[in-house]
Predict the structure of ABC transporter permease.
Amino acid sequence: MRGSDWLDRLGIGALIGVALFSLALLLLPAVIVVIMSFDTRGYISFPPAGFTFDWYARLFNQPVLMGAMWTSIKVGVYVTVLCIALGVPTALACARGDFRGAAGLSVFVLLPHMVPGIVLGVAVLFAGALFGIGPSIWLQSISLAVYVMAVMVRTVMARLQKLDPLLEQAASNLGATRWQSFRTITLPLLMPAILAGAVFTFIEGFDNLSVTIFTHGYRDRPLPVELLTIVQNTNSPLVAAVSSVQILLAILALLAISATIGLDRVND
């Protein structure tokens, strides 16, 4: 075996090893949390002493936690609707707009996502106070939409940049208006990216803590904030059960994308 072949195999092996190690770092914490949620003991410990579904039964029998989960679902839906309504036109303006400042607008959209969530949460809280808007589910939804808008915009922009503009020009040559061209050609081709962005924004709106901890209302406590309260006051596997439900919802959302449009088609 030549020296170069040996070095190539060594490099490939090292790359695979790093990839597997990175995958383990990503998955092991979640797997450990799920395993601990089935422990029979009344406190968090690993490995578990037994196997039981009691903590999940307690979770779904607690009105406070179920109310917090319902609040998080509503916030996730509101954030998704706002990001679609504002993010798709913004992406069209950034990718297809022929005006000065289009590149600057694209960078500006990314800025809130680059700012730490805690900073953005405090900023939105103070800004809401200036306009007489106190912490509520609406302020929470608006702050999260500002925070994750970049996800929708960048996902749709990536799809737009791969679409052939000649398709719209051909529709215009055949007599279609710009709205008809967008509705019948551009929008259907953008749907995989819009749906993918919607799922990602919903997940972020559902389980974000850094922003919502400053903007949620007293009667609209989302699940992450309620989970933080539980962690501060108890050490029971109920915390792991709540976390496992959040992990399951995220997995189901990704599976829904894969089953409907396919993850490989998001930016095709």
Summary: The chain is about 75% helix and 0% strand. The two ends are 40 Å apart (CA to CA).
